[in-house]
Structure formats: structure tokens, C-alpha cells
Specification:
The chain is an alpha+beta fold and 296 residues long. Helix content is 41%, strand content 21%.
Length: 296
């Protein structure tokens, strides 16, 4: 009579995956699948086509030297006569989204090409477009109101749509710089003597570094964007790479984005990453970013 079947010994080496293998399997499970990549690319292409069609449909026609009202047809549906101001609002929103699209498509293309795309960042790519459109609209409103230039614009000249659309696209593409500019305007308009006494609670705390994405790179890699996760991040938070302060793109109070230098991945080794808030002397703990040879 056969005895009871014994299960695998939990202490057996075969029952335990090496730490490196477990880490690799975990990262693999978090990575975007082929269907995720296909859907993302298809969605981006569809959004691009829609934005271009809307841009061309609402582009104002000119009569002599004046911009005139016109009947707008969008995707075969007549929308009737649309006023100039409404069309400019639409053009600003579309141009801001197009600027963000350039940033999103470039970043996604780099990560897809290097097989480093993760599902968690797909949501960031999607939300980046309305963020860019909203920033472009705010910049346009302040520009028309004279807050940025000091003089308002009551009438729109014939060449204005080109400059307005171009500026809106830049605001969407460089969202961090646009946000900084809006912050300067807000500080100028609403500055009080109490500002120096009141410190932001988040900015007054030392940053906490919890994860780097990716956690390793190959020597000579063209994917140089490093995404940093943690806590207590601010727009002035600095990233220290081997002690050298680098300016990072502020995404949220828990995420930063940093473009590494080509020299950082020129040879195998380890990069020591730390975070620092200028208002706080304490720094975060150090995390290591491995630069590995292709032969490993």
C-alpha cells in the first residue's frame, strides 16, 4: 500500500525562486502586453486624426484683412454659424492637446521601442492630453486679458490664429514650464507679507524615495527617461545623481520624471540616486540604478 503523497519540500532550493528571478517575473507581470501596446498606439493615432480634423474644421476663414464668422461642419455634421471667439477657444484647446500629444507620443515610442512600457503609465499618457489642453486655455485667457503682456487684446488680427495656436501647442508640449509661468503670475497677483511665514506642509518635509522605473538600464541605452516614485515631492525638488543636482519634471507630489545624460549610461556601474527639497536640509535615502552590459 502506497503511503500519502508528499508535497514539495518548502525548504528545497527548487521551491524557491532566486531573488533576481522573482524580481524579473514581477517586473514582467507589470509590463504592458502586446494588446496594451496595440490599443495605446491605436488610441493615440485616432486621437491625432480627430484633433487634426477638428483643427481644420474650426480654422477661421479670412475676408480681406478681417476674420469672419463661418459655418462649421464637423465629421459631416453641420454645426451652423460659429462665432470667432468660440472657434478660437476650440483651436486653443485642440492645439494644447496636440502639444501634449507630441510629448506623449515621443515618450511612449521610446518606452515601446525599448520594451519598458508599463500599464500604470498608460493612464498618465491619457490624462496628459486634457491637462495640456487646460493649460493652453489658461495661458490664452491670461494673454487675451493682458495679464501676461500687460495689454489686453480686444480684436483679433488676421495673423493671430497662427500665433495663438502655436503658443497653445507649446503650452501643452511644455506643461511644466507653462505651469511655472502661471505660478509666477499667481504669486505676483496674490502675494502678501504672510507668504514668507506660511510654509507648505509638503515642501517643508524631506522627500521620500521609494522606487525607480526602470530599476536598471543597459549600457548605451537610448531610453534615458527615469521615473521616480515617492512622497513629499515639490516643483523645486532636485534629483541627485552621484551627488550632482539635476532638475526634474514635476508630475505630482508622488512622482517625478528625469532625463538622464548619455554619459550616465556610457559604461557599466551603479548610479546613486537621492532626492532633495531646497527648503529642507535632510535628503532622502539613496537608491541605486544599475547600468548593465548587454552581455549580462
Amino acid at each position: 500500500m502506497n503511503g500519502p503523497t508528499k508535497g514539495p519540500d518548502p525548504n528545497s532550493p527548487k521551491s524557491k525562486n532566486p531573488p533576481a528571478k522573482e524580481k524579473q517575473e514581477k517586473r514582467k507581470s507589470e509590463g504592458a502586453s502586446r494588446s496594451d501596446v496595440f490599443l495605446l498606439v491605436a488610441a493615440l493615432l485616432l486621437i491625432f486624426v480627430v484633433l487634426i480634423v477638428v483643427l481644420l474644421s474650426f480654422w477661421p476663414e479670412t475676408t480681406g484683412t478681417q476674420l469672419t464668422n463661418q459655418t462649421v461642419t464637423l465629421f459631416g455634421l453641420p454645426l451652423g454659424a460659429v462665432g470667432l471667439e468660440v472657434r478660437l477657444f476650440v483651436l486653443v484647446l485642440v492645439a494644447g492637446a496636440l502639444g501634449s500629444f507630441i510629448h506623449v507620443a515621443t515618450s511612449a515610442g521610446d518606452y515601446i521601442g525599448n520594451r519598458k512600457l508599463y500599464r500604470s503609465w498608460i493612464y498618465w499618457y491619457i490624462l496628459r492630453l486634457p491637462v495640456g489642453a487646460s493649460l493652453a486655455l489658461l495661458v490664452y485667457l491670461l494673454l487675451r486679458g493682458g495679464v501676461i503682456t500687460g495689454t489686453g487684446v480686444s480684436e483679433v488680427p488676421q495673423t493671430a490664429p497662427f500665433g495663438i495656436v502655436g503658443l497653445s501647442a507649446l503650452a501643452g508640449m511644455f506643461a511644466k514650464k507653462a505651469t511655472n509661468k502661471l505660478g509666477e503670475i499667481f504669486d505676483m497677483l496674490f502675494h502678501t507679507d504672510q507668504d514668507d511665514k506660511l510654509k507648505d506642509k509638503v515642501g517643508a518635509q524631506a522627500p521620500v524615495l521609494t522606487a525607480l522605473d526602470p530599476s536598471s538600464l543597459k549600457v548605451g541605452s537610448t531610453q534615458l527617461e527615469l521615473r521616480i516614485t515617492g512622497q513629499h515631492f515639490g516643483e523645486d525638488t532636485k534629483v541627485l545623481i552621484d551627488g550632482e543636482a539635476r532638475a526634474a519634471e514635476y508630475v505630482s507630489d508622488t512622482q517625478l520624471s528625469l532625463s538622464l545624460k548619455k554619459e550616465d549610461v556610457a559604461q557599466a556601474g551603479v548610479l546613486k540616486v537621492q532626492l532633495e527639497n531646497p527648503s529642507v536640509r535632510d535628503k532622502s535615502d539613496t537608491m541605486e540604478l544599475s547600468i548593465e552590459d548587454d552581455t549580462e
